[in-house]
Every structure is written in C-alpha cells, then in structure tokens.
Amino acid sequence: MTTIGIIGAGHIGSQVARKAVQLGYDVVISNSRGPETLAELVTELGPHARAATPAEAAAAGDFAVVTVPLKSYKNIPVEPLADKIVIDTNNYYFERDGHIPELDKGEATTAGLLQEHLPTSKVAKGFNHIYAAQITSDGTPPGTENRRALATASDFPEAAELVTKLYDEFGFDTVNIGPLNESWRVERDRPAYAVRQNAAELKDNLAKAPRTI
Ligand SMILES: NC(=O)c1ccc[n+]([C@@H]2O[C@H](COP(=O)([O-])OP(=O)(O)OC[C@H]3O[C@@H](n4cnc5c(N)ncnc54)[C@H](OP(=O)(O)O)[C@@H]3O)[C@@H](O)[C@H]2O)c1
C-alpha cells in the first residue's frame, strides 16, 4: 500500500485525496489549522485517509503533494521530506502571495523555489494547470481518443516518472517539460495554463510560452 502525504487540504489537496483513495492509495492530509479541522473531509474520504500535522503527513508519505498558497512554501517541513519525491501544485498569484521579485523577473520558477527550500527532496511539478474540480471529473482511461494531458517537470527523472504514473492512474496523459528551470512554461497565464488540451496541443502550447508575462 502506498501512502501519499498531502500538505494543504483546500481545493486541490482535497481533490487529489478523493481521487487517490478511490484508486486505493492511503492518504495522510494536513493543513495549517490542525488535524481536528479536517474531521469532515476525513470522514468523507473514508478508512484510507487520516488527518495529521504537515510534519506528520510529510513523514508518513512514501511521496508527498505540496498544495498550499505559494506564500506559505517556506513553512513546508524540510527534514521529513528528505529523499522523497514531492509533487508541487503551487502557482504564483502576486495578488495573494505578494510580489516575489525573482518570479516577476523570470529568473526563477515556482517549483524551483520549492526545490531550493527542500534541497534533499526530489520536486516535480504536477496538477498546477488543471482546475481542482476537474481532477475528479476529467480523467479517462489510457488510450482514450483526445485524452487530456497534464505537464510535469523535474530535475529527477524518477520524480517525473512517478508523476507520469500517477497522472495515468488519475486519467491523464503526461507531457514532460524537462528540468525545473523550464517549468515556467506551464505557469500561470501561459498558453498551457488551465485549458483542456491533449498531449499534442499541450506540447504546442508549452513551446510557444513566453518567459515573462
Ligand atoms: N484551486 C485550483 O483550481 C488550483 C489549480 C491548480 C493549482 N492551484 C494551486 O495549488 C495551490 C493550492 O491551491 P488551493 O486552491 O487548493 O488552495 P486553498 O483552497 O486556498 O487551500 C490551501 C490549503 O493550504 C493550507 N495551508 C496554508 N498554509 C499552510 C502551511 N503552512 N502548512 C500546511 N498547510 C497550509 C490551507 O490550510 P488552512 O485552511 O488550515 O490555512 C489549505 O488547506 C495554490 O498554490 C494554487 O495556486 C490551485
């Protein structure tokens, strides 16, 4: 049995948890306010889910999903995520997160910032350009014509492979952008962001993305 540690239990965290338990994963899910505030969600998710603190969720996961507002990324526990694959769903909204100059200037990526914060983890971009509700509604079996595709990026091939496998189980094809320093191609307001596209369309959209917006 594989356990996913989920840090962030909002729109995306709860949806990833719903699909994951449906698929037979165990999930340990956390938020900033404490496990007791997640009782309703955990009841809905059933016996393969429990709530915990972020550090406990990180420690319990065979791999983790970090899905918090970007401004909170420096609060993600480092040590319990050491050597683990960490899927980063985060997007940069300066209106919510405050300005982060290296992102504004196109000198960093959102996933790259998380990788710097988690130097001993293997960060991969994932689930950042799909609306939360569609995580449980848009998946289709492998080989479906015009299947929706999602992008990943990582400096670690094994992390991109894990995301590819997870996407496939969730019902999506994968386009691997390459290393994290190319992951800006799927960030906010680029052509590939939050639109439904198959793998060929996603590749085209990634190729035509501008570095800054
Ligand atoms: N919504 C979407 O459709 C969507 C799609 C793709 C990507 N994203 C991106 O994915 C990330 C999460 O989005 P969301 O819509 O799920 O956000 P959300 O609904 O606002 O949920 C954020 C979650 O993060 C938790 N959190 C905040 N700070 C934390 C910390 N220091 N430690 C642990 N948990 C913390 C919050 O817990 P509390 O409530 O207890 O504070 C909450 O459970 C964002 O970066 C967003 O831009 C969102």
From TrEMBL:
<protein>
    <submittedName>
        <fullName>NADPH-dependent F420 reductase</fullName>
    </submittedName>
</protein>
<dbReference type="InterPro" id="IPR028939">
    <property type="entry name" value="P5C_Rdtase_cat_N"/>
</dbReference>
<keyword id="KW-0560">Oxidoreductase</keyword>
<feature type="domain" description="Pyrroline-5-carboxylate reductase catalytic N-terminal">
    <location>
        <begin position="3"/>
        <end position="92"/>
    </location>
</feature>
<dbReference type="InterPro" id="IPR036291">
    <property type="entry name" value="NAD(P)-bd_dom_sf"/>
</dbReference>
<dbReference type="InterPro" id="IPR051267">
    <property type="entry name" value="STEAP_metalloreductase"/>
</dbReference>
<dbReference type="Pfam" id="PF03807">
    <property type="entry name" value="F420_oxidored"/>
</dbReference>
